[in-house]
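Entry, Tuesday afternoon. Goal for today is a structural model of the target with zinc ion bound, before we commit to ordering more compound. Inputs were pasted exactly as handed over by J.K., no edits. I checked the ligand SMILES twice against the vendor sheet because last time a stereocentre got dropped in transcription.
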Amino acid sequence: MTEAAAVPSPAERAYRAAASVVDPEIPVLSIADLGILRGVEVDGGTAVARLTPTYSGCPAVLAIELSVEAALREAGFEPRVERVVSPAWTTDWISAAGREKLRAYGIAPPEQASRSLRALFGETEVACPRCGSRDTERVSEFGSTACKALYRCRACAEPFDYFKCI
Ligand SMILES: [Zn+2]
């Protein structure tokens, strides 16, 4: 991505405002990093942000929608948020930058190809975000939130959250 030297167009300003919203559960990740911001369209003074919710029933979804509305309003637009449910979001939509941010934050990013056989059978080999060892074990299906599982690294003995694949 390159920084535009010229004054950003209204569509760019609206997109940047919406893309600056972070996931309330993982504040290092913006909704653009997560891949749930599908696009922003500007029509006159109205900005329509299209969002695909991550986990259905995840309480973060509503909080994110409200934050996007607030960000667009602050940027000078009449905000509207549209929920796009198809195609369904998968963890494969998380950007490469987003995966790096997760690791730096101490959360093991989801392994790519969430539709692999391995994921189907629930056997995910998860690398420790601290030391990179794959000698890890799942301690609990649920970590600090329902979207994460709690793992422990046998190499460095540190517990960590794993962002679950869906
Ligand atoms: Zn480790």
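Residues 60-74 form the longest helix (15 residues).
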